[in-house]
Write a structure and sequence with these properties.
The structure is a homodimer of 478-residue chains.
Chain A lengths: L1 H10 L4 E2 L2 H8 L12 E3 L4 H14 L3 E4 L18 E4 L6 E5 L4 E5 L4 H10 L2 E2 L12 H6 L7 H4 L6 E7 L5 E4 L12 H5 L8 E8 L1 E2 L3 E9 L2 H15 L3 E8 H10 L16 E9 L3 H17 L5 E4 L3 H12 L1 H4 L6 E2 L2 E3 L5 H15 L4 E7 L4 E7 L6 H6 L1 H14 L18 H4 L2 H14 L20
Parallel strand pairs in A: 2-4, 3-4
Antiparallel strand pairs in A: 1-2, 5-6, 6-10, 7-11, 8-9, 8-10, 12-14, 12-15, 13-14, 13-18, 16-19, 17-19, 18-19
Chain lengths: 478, 478
């Protein structure tokens, strides 16, 4: 294959993987849901090599699927089955280029594993707050390409909010040098945010200048028992007012989620007993304090005491120690594993305005029950930033096949309802291939046509992750 | 004029101003530095009328200069002298469409004056934190078109960080409905941030969904006396660590700035006496507390006491009351007026990484003194977000004419130095016409060519604020 020899000349023989056995782990996503075939996996050593590979691909009209840790949930980093595309792995772009504590910034390469980035910040007594389940294997490049969310969004924002500048290889194979560590820079269009969240379809992010924050001195959590989602929303308002930016977590969980956890993991226990344990909703709050754990606990006592008096919450447990805080978080984090006990399921990563959640849940639950009576609703997530997981489980009544047969209709009911309330059908996971064909149903047509115009302008040959996020236009099919 | 009658048919006779006396105030910026001639000033009543006007302009290839409060500093809202463009004034798009306290969002039209937006938030016990000198007359549409900065950036970010969604009229006259009030939404390219900061060259922002915050319970300020910029940077690090997100202001001022203030305004007084008053640098710190003024003062005492012990700061005054806090801020805010006492001046709105400020100031001051010995450096600004005003005043030695004659060379010395340190030649004011032709000298050429590609894709007829921000390409001159 002459073409491969040209790629080998660019990055070296050991970094062009063409053997099926070597390519296999890159051609399938980590959950085994998406399967593709790549011409080869190419692993450039640095930004200059990325640019050379892209120039070669542009000349030869070869599609490029950029892949970081391969931990995505929407198939955005898996090639199609044509065997024509290359997978460009960023795994060798793994340097922490610099940490500047006076400026509170760090420059890292796209292939750095998120946890390595967090640890490099921590080593300098700083916090890089992006945090999510896959942090041990996902890469910062993938986090930025998909604008990852995670558990700290309420306080620190999404991935895009943590970035000051980018280095990007364009579809022409040029290098955009935009690694500025500036918090204020009004010199033209915001290209940084255009590349962030574009899922590898507009350019290849090779490095980023990230914001750093002080480490909180102490953290403290509390678990609340509530009568309704409406009360949870009122409590969120009181917490924002009472704690200001010290409020770093506000998670909502329906009772059946916690019941599933204690059933699956008998070593875990609900912090409530008696009538409080029977209430339908629970919330987990976290404070990050710049004084002390004691100060955080005192703040909790004041604000939660007032909320109990007002009848907004029915009961509250404030963690007495770091270990107790961890146990409360562990309950929340065990839900995704424990919900399997409720049968097979369909998951939805949605957001609607917080003020609409009561109505949204009532109406959507009712529509789902009318369509498929007896399925179980599993509802939990980051109420503080408006992002809930709205899952539907088969329970004991239906088989996996029953549910799978109605998957599309069930998802349409949920997403149509999300759309009616002005929400998003992908709050944090992105579009990839999973949701690509749903997008035209829900996205404003003018936004969609602007997206196509930008794609056409920045990648006219459609070589960057074609068919992801946007459907391929008929005139640019590869 | 047949054409005007067509516009009149769209928006009504009283909203197409063609008489020179009526147009005049729109054709000149508020400082009287930029002068243009417009065919007419058109004042649409709502988004639908904006779209109709843009469609008419697109058909007739008429350029559109969108104008809000006309308070810009770079001539971005002033037409050229050809008399061909229309000015589209957003002044009638002035409705607060909704305030949602449970979701902490509000939807406002582009022509709302910033102070009206702040007050609408305050009426619901919420904070909209964007704040700047022109807030009584600038509009939120202009703030977003230029990504305004202001005094709260350290804590709340720039204007773009306060926006969740936009309604925009495109260059084709289509309406993009993107007024989502969601903190998480990963369904495609970030068009919102592309329009924000594009200075009316990519689309016309007609409304925005804004983020609201809790009102701080108390605020407290302190003034510090320092030996050096380096110490100020160390102090900034200690303040970030000690106060976390409660730190909402960190302003740096050279001694000559404060001396000019007390000379001009004898009723104002420096809070220091004796040797502290003779130190070369001063810093103003502000804490926003969610507990009480007393708590804020106690926090100040702890952290500043430690800093004095470490020798990082030489002296500190903590305000004992709201009135004292206001007096300290008043000193800082009087600098731009008082610096006139130091002669005529050239201003620069710059940012460099905070860690480079010591070296930047030393090297730039030396280069300026070598070029024009005896001019006075006036240096002050938002050190907390890396944005300083680096001004050069004639002092007693030079006349206004002397300085004006060397204006371009002086600015080149400053901006070349900014560029060498990886900084920005426009931290918060934008490009407009003032800095347009400097941009190619400092902007990464790949970024610049991507900006041109996006402009071409979204406004192929180049009717949206042509000649601002980007130089008109030869093939698209109107």
């Amino acid at each position: 294959m002459e073409q491969l020899s040209e790629l080998i000349a660019l990055v070296g023989e050991s970094h062009v993987l063409a053997e099926p056995a070597l390519k296999a782990q890159y051609e399938e996503d980590w959950r085994g849901r998406y399967h593709g075939v790549a011409r080869a996996v190419v692993r450039p050593a640095d930004t200059a090599e990325v640019a050379e590979v892209v120039r070669w691909c542009a000349e030869n009209e070869v599609a490029i699927v950029t892949q970081g840790g391969n931990t995505g949930l929407c198939g955005g980093a898996t090639p199609d089955r044509s065997g024509q595309a290359i997978i460009l792995s960023t795994e060798r772009l793994n340097k922490i280029r610099s940490v500047d504590t006076a400026n509170d910034t760090m420059v890292v390469e796209a292939g750095c594993v998120l946890q390595v980035v967090q640890e490099a910040a921590q080593a300098q007594d700083r916090l890089f707050p992006l945090s999510l389940a896959a942090e041990g294997s996902c890469t910062i490049g993938g986090n930025l390409a998909t604008n990852a969310g995670g558990t700290q969004v309420l306080r620190y924002g999404n991935a895009r909010d943590l970035v000051l500048g980018l280095e990007v290889v364009t579809a022409k194979g040029e290098i955009m040098h935009g690694l500025r560590g500036l918090r204020k820079d009004n010199t033209g269009y915001d290209l940084r945010n255009l590349f962030i969240g574009s899922e590898g379809t507009l350019g290849i992010i090779t490095a980023a200048a990230l914001k750093l924050f002080p480490q909180p001195v102490a953290q403290c959590t509390a678990m609340l028992a509530l009568n309704s989602v409406e009360d949870a929303i009122t409590m969120l308002g009181l917490a924002r007012q009472g704690f200001g930016p010290a409020l770093t977590g506000f998670e909502l969980m329906a009772r059946n989620c916690l019941e599933a956890v204690v059933e699956c993991y008998p070593e875990q226990r609900l912090p409530f007993q008696g009538p409080s344990a029977e209430l339908p909703w629970f919330a987990l709050l976290e404070l990050s304090d710049s004084e002390s754990e004691e100060h955080a606990r005192t703040r909790f006592e004041e604000v939660l005491g007032e909320a109990i008096e007002q009848g907004v919450i029915q009961d509250a447990v404030i963690a007495e120690s770091g270990a107790q805080s961890a146990a409360l978080w562990h309950l929340r984090e065990s839900i995704p594993l424990a919900e399997r006990a409720l049968g097979t399921g369909i998951k939805h990563d949605i957001s609607v305005p917080v003020s609409s959640y009561t109505e949204f849940i009532e109406q959507t639950n009712a529509a789902i029950q009318e369509f498929m009576p007896g399925v179980i609703h599993v509802i939990f997530g980051h109420l503080g930033d408006g992002n809930l997981h709205y899952n539907i489980m088969s329970g004991q009544i239906y088989s996996e096949a029953d549910l799978t047969a109605k998957l599309e209709q069930l998802s349409n009911i949920v997403h149509d309802s999300v759309h009616r309330f002005g929400g998003s059908i992908s709050a944090e996971h992105g579009i990839g291939q999973l949701k690509r064909d749903w997008l035209p149903r829900y996205k404003d047509p003018v936004e969609l046509s602007l997206m196509h115009a930008i794609k056409q302008a920045l990648d006219p040959k459609n070589i960057l992750n074609p068919g992801k996020l946007l459907a391929v236009s008929s005139d640019s099919t590869k």
